[in-house]
């Protein structure tokens, strides 16, 4: 059985694949939320999905049962879906990939993702990610944008990744893109670890604003901007009710104000600790 099941093969104009994966790469659902927001904004059409059978340990990533109209039982499997949407202002298409980090056969999975990018004529792959970090919610979200290709780095104002340590499916996918000669860009948003519960519209907004800059496409963010302001106001209220947390946030603000290298990734210890915490939570679940 072919891993990709197609609904249709629509002709796309200079498409770029924009991908996000639920799991470790998606703190507070900020990255997957950005792709979901784009799907709704562009009224994107579902065109294909990856069959989960070969890529998941269903004892670790379990399917879910739900009731339809209160009677019929429906099983939902881990979803990796492709949607096509057009940015009408510039007549350019986006291939939106909404995925779940697989448990098995990561290299084959990444090859499958790249094959779809090639079949649809994608010029580039852009992944969105979010990680928990020691950052204050009151400051602008400082994104990290990385790439491997020197020309792409210079053209888009990105940087080489200096990170060493544990990685997720996003890191493996970018390595596979490099091996396949597919240009790729990785955008990451830090999420305050003390407000890790989803959603985080402020981080989602920051990812979409940077994506808009990288691809030179307009993305109207009016509703999302309002949601980000409301989110920060609610967090301010909660933080203000706890003197210890308020003091901690002030410390983070002072450190953030003194930070010199605004483009540095979280260090290896931070990412390793976050990976270990995520795996512990998965085992508990």
What does this entry look like structurally?
The chain is an alpha/beta fold. The protein has one domain: Rossmann fold, CATH 3.40.50. The chain contains eight helices and ten strands. The strands form two sheets. It has an eight-stranded mixed β-sheet, with helices on both faces. β6 and β7 form a beta hairpin. α1 crosses α5 and α5 packs antiparallel against α6. The longest helix is centred in the C-terminal third of the chain and has 19 residues. It is globular, with a radius of gyration of 19 Å. It starts with a strand and ends with a helix. About 2% of the residues have low confidence.
Q: What tags apply to this protein structure?
A:
single chain, 285 residues, alpha/beta, Rossmann fold, eight-stranded mixed sheet, two-stranded antiparallel sheet, 10 strands, 22% strand, globular
Short description:
With 285 residues, the protein is of the alpha/beta class.
